[in-house]
Amino acid sequence: MVRVKPFVMGIVSGSAAGALYVLFSTPSSGQEFRSNAVSKSKELNSLLRRSGQDGKQFKDQVTETSKDTLSLIRHLSEDISSSVEGWKQTIAPHQKEIQKYLEQIEENLADLEEKAKQHRTSGNEETPRN
Q1: I need a labelling partner for 12 at 20 to 30 A (CA). Which of 18, 61, 82, 113 fits?
Q2: CA dihedral 43, 51, 12, 62 (to 10 degrees)
Q3: Which residues touch 26 (CB under 8 Å, ≥6 apart)?
């Protein structure tokens, strides 16, 4: 989850430090400095309010998007589960038939192997070895 508070605090402290640097590094008279300081503090205060509002809007958007995503994932999960269940029900009767066919094939293979062994043993008796 995005941490908004540290981000906003970074913007605020960076803005304040920048504003103070500009105020103190500019050569001006005391009167100009005070009026400049008041003006800059009002601008900074306005910036802070806008940043707070923007941060709240961002947080609300992230929260809403998270809720929508969770809802979408739940629906998708339910759809997949119902599809799998439907597939299982469709396949279930055919599984028994396939199992029967596999058992028949295994029996036929066993019979063929037995006949092949008999043929080999009977073939060995008829042909003399050198």
Answers
A1: 61
A2: -170
A3: 36
